[in-house]
Amino acid sequence: MSAVTVFGLTAAAAVGLGLYGLITNPQPLRKLLAFNLLGSGVFLLFGIIGRRGAAAGFGNDPVPQALVITGIVVAFAATALAIALLLRLFRTAGSTTLRSDAPRMGRGADAPGG
Amino acid sequence: MLPPAPMSATTAGGFLLVLSIVLPVAGVLLAFALGDRYVRLVAFTIMPLGLAIAAALVLALPRGGGHLVYLLGAWPPPLGVALHADGLSAVMIAATAVVIPAVAVYAAPEFRPAAAARAPAAFWMLLLAIWGALNAIFVGGDLFTLYVALELLTFATVPLVSLDGRAETLQAALRYLLFALLGSVLYLAGTALLYGLYGALDIVLLSRRADAQLGTLIAAALMTTGLLAKTALFPLHLWLPPAHAGAPAAASAILSGLVVKGSLFIVIRLWFDVMRGLPGFAAAHVLGALGATAIIFGSVVALRQERLKLLIAYSTLAQIGYLFLMFPLAFDVSGDLKRGGALAGGVLQAISHATAKAAMFMAAGSIYAGLGHDRITGLNGVARAQPLSVLTFALGGVALMGVPPSGASLAKDLLLQAAAETEQWWWTILLQAGGVLTAAYVVLVLAHALAPPDKPIALRGAVPRICDLAALVLALCSLLLGLMPWASYLPIPQGGMSNPLGIDALSKLLLPVLGGTVLAILLSPWPHPLALNAVERMIAPLRRACLGFGRLVEAVDDVLRQWPAASMSLLLVALLLGTLMFAGA
C-alpha cells in the first residue's frame, strides 16, 4: 500500500468521523470539534493531491499547500467566531443547547425582533 | 459568459474589479482604526464611492466586449489568480450597490454611534464587510477565491444575526454558523477533487478541461450541495427562519436580499461556467424539484405565521425555491445546457427579490418600531397610522408577484418562454403558482393592515420619514426593473419582453391577486375582522381541510428543521445529486 493510499484512507476516516459527530452530537462545542476533524480530513486530501502532483509536470505540487494554509486560517477564524458566540450564549442563557428554539419557533407572540 | 480566449492580460478597466473589493474592506479597516464614533461617517463616505465604482463597472463592461479581467500581480492562471467580471457579475454588483446604501439610509437613525453600545459600530463594519465579500464573490475568477469570499460573507453575516445579543438570536447565529460550515467544508472537498483532477481552479481553464468523469461529478455534487446549504434551499433551511426573523430589520433586509444570493451566484457559476451542464438534466431536475417543494412549503408555512417578520422569512424560503427553477429550464430539448432566457430570468428574479424583499423587511421593521409588535392579527388600522410603510410593503409584494413592469414579471416571462421552448410544461404550473402564492401572503397582510382598528392606535415611537422613503425607493426600483436595458448584460432572447403597459398587464395583476385572496382565506388560520359569515359557513369544510393540510406541512417543517434531520437531508441531497449525475453521464 503506497503512502498516498494510506493518507487517502486516513482522510476519508477523518471526514467520516467528523460528519458523524457533526450530525449526531447535540452539543455545539462537540459539533465544532467534529467540524474541525472534518476540515482536517479535507486538508489532508489537499496534501495528498499536492503529493501526487496534479499540475502538469510537478513532482510535488506546492499550490495545494498554499490552499491548505488558507483553509486552515479560515477554519481557525470560524472556530474562534463559533467559540465566541458559544461563550456569549452561555453567559446570556446559562446553557449552550441549540434545541430550545427548534420546536415552535414562531409561536412566541411577543418575541421581540424588528 | 466566459471569455473566448484564456485570460492572459488585464483588460482596460480591470482595476475596477479590484477597487470594488478593496474599497469596502478599506472602509472596515478605517472604521476600526478611527474608533466607534466615526464608524457611521466612514460607512457613509464609502457608500457613494462604492456606488460610483459599480456604475463605472456597469458602463465599462459593454466597451470591454462583455468582459473585464484583472490578473493579480500580472500572473496568468493557473499560476496566478484572476478576477473576472461578465454581465452576470455586473448586474449583481449593481444590485448590491443599490440595496446596501438604501439599507444604510434606513438604518442610520437606529444605529447611531453611542458610547455605551457596541452594536451600532459592529453593524456598520459588518455591512461594509458583507459588501466587500459579495463583490469578491461576483468577480472571483477562481474556485478557491470564491471559497474564501463565501466564508468571509458567512463570517460577516453571523454576527449581524445576533447583533442584539439575546439568547434566541445567539442560538440562531450559532446554528447558522455551524450549518454554513458544514456546507463550506463540502464545497472545499469538491475544490480539492477538481484541483486533483485538472491541476487548476481557474474557472475559464476548468471549463475547458472539465469532462464527465467520476471525480468531477462527485465534486460537482459535493459543491452544489454545500452551496445549497448556504443558500437555504428546502430542505436545508433550518437556520433561515430564526436567523432572518430575529435579526434587526436592516440586517434581515441584507440577509434575505443579498446574502443568500452570494452562494446562489456560485451555484450558477459552477453549473453554467465551470461544468457547462456536465451535471446533467436529471440532477438539474432535482434542483428544480427541491425549488418547487420550497415554493409550496415556504408559502404554506408563511401563511400560518403569526408574526410579520417570520412570514417574510418563510416567504424568502419560497422565493429561493423559485430561483432554482432556472436550472432544469436551462437545458434544451437535446439535453444541452444553454445560457439563454432561463439563466437571464433566474438572475433577474434574484435581483428583483433582492430589492423587493429588502424593502418588505424594512417596511416590517418600521411597522414593528411603530406598533411595538408585529403580530399580523394586531395590524388592524396600521395602514392609517403608517401609510408609507404599508405602501412599501404592498409595492414590494406587487413587484414580487410578477406584475408588469416589475423585474419579476420580466423574469417570469423569460422562464415561461424557456419552459415552452424546452417543452417542460410542468414547470409552468409552478411558475404561475409562485406568483399566486406570493400574492396570497401580501393580500393576507394588507387585509389586516387595511381593516379598521378596534380602538385608535397609539404609536409607540415615530419612525423617521427618511427610513420609510429609503424602503419605498427600493420597492419602486424593484417595480421598475423590467424597463431597464438588460440585453447588454444578460442573455435575453429576442421577443422576451412583452409590452409592460398592455391589457395583459391588468390580467397579470388581477389573476394572482384573486387566486392569492382565495388561498389566503383558505390557508391562513387567523380570524379576520372583515370575514363574511355567510361565505365562511359555505366554505367551512373546504377551509378545514386546507387548514389541516397547512398544519401537516408545518409539522413536517418542524421536523425538517431539527439538526439531525437537516444534516441527514444534506447528505441525501448530495447522494441523490451524485447518483443522478453519474447515471446521466
Automatic annotation (TrEMBL), chain A:
It comes from the Bacteria. This is NADH-ubiquinone oxidoreductase subunit 4L. It is found in: Cell membrane. It is a multi-pass membrane protein. It holds the Pfam family Oxidored_q2. InterPro entries: CPA3_antiporter_subunitC (IPR050601), NUOK/Mnh_C1-like (IPR039428). Its main location: membrane. The keyword Iron-sulfur does not apply. The chain crosses the membrane at residues 6-23, 35-54, 66-90. It comes from Bradyrhizobium cajani. Keywords: Cell membrane, Membrane, Transmembrane, Transmembrane helix. PANTHER family: ANTIPORTER SUBUNIT MNHC2-RELATED (PTHR34583:SF2). The keyword Membrane applies.
Automatic annotation (TrEMBL), chain B:
The chain crosses the membrane at residues 12-34, 41-61, 81-107, 119-138, 144-164, 176-198, 218-240, 252-272, 278-303, 310-331, 351-371, 383-404, 424-448, 469-489, 509-528, 565-584. It comes from Bradyrhizobium cajani. It is a multi-pass membrane protein. It comes from the Bacteria. Pfam families: Proton_antipo_M (PF00361). GO terms for cellular component: endomembrane system; membrane. InterPro entries: CPA3_Na-H_Antiporter_A, NADH_UbQ_OxRdtase, ND/Mrp_TM. The keyword Transmembrane helix applies. Keywords: Membrane, Transmembrane, Transmembrane helix. Residues 141-437 form the NADH:quinone oxidoreductase/Mrp antiporter transmembrane domain. GO terms for biological process: ATP synthesis coupled electron transport. It is found in: Endomembrane system; Membrane. GO terms for molecular function: NADH dehydrogenase (ubiquinone) activity. This is NADH-quinone oxidoreductase subunit J. The keyword Zinc-finger does not apply.
